[in-house]
Amino acid sequence: MNWLAHIFLSELNIESQLGNLLNDTSKGRVWLGASSLIEDGMRMHQKVDRFTDNHRAFAMSKSVLGRGLLRGVVVDLVYDLLLTRHWNRFSNIPREVFLSEFYERAEVAIQDYPIGVQKFVKGLIKSDHLRHYQNFNDLEQTFIRVDKRLSKRLLKKESTLSYLPLVIQEFDHIEQHFLEFFPELLKYVAQKSDLTQLSHWKKESFR
User: Fold this and answer.
1) Angle at the Cα of 8 (from 148 to 45), degrees rounded to 5?
2) Which of 3, 10, 68, 191 has the most CB atoms at less than 10 Å from its CB?
3) How far apart are CA 23 and CA 46, in angstroms?
């Protein structure tokens, strides 16, 4: 799963959300003075990634994209687009409200975080990238941004952008996989979370 999903899957407090978001950027390591909620958020990110990587539906989504090295990254990004498309099926809070509240709380929370973390979160807020999962044009721009971070050696073999035609062709199948997968992921996360902190989820979507 990618950034939007990881924030949504967190308990509804800003430090858990930021820990879940920042796990990859921080390579799973908390910084000196980080709260236990930050650490819990990072651990949840890691659990979500393991569950996702081992789920049949996620594997099926990768399989329709061939054999490339970047299939998992591509599916993660496509699943964020699908979460946006089906947001109201899973969330009690409108996406615009959810993201606006996250941005507002994050700006306050990060004031005492390490400079590198502050820079990352402020950049994410400024770009408003979490709202840019509306359509294939947005997905194309996301692939382009991701490819800029890849090594030249890998780009000689493939890029995330090179998958876009196949994603469009297989989108209906990937959507079916996502709709099988995501309620099961929610159920898994709920079992490992404080249910009183998951008020933004529609309970019928995972029970």
Assistant:
1) 65
2) 10
3) 8
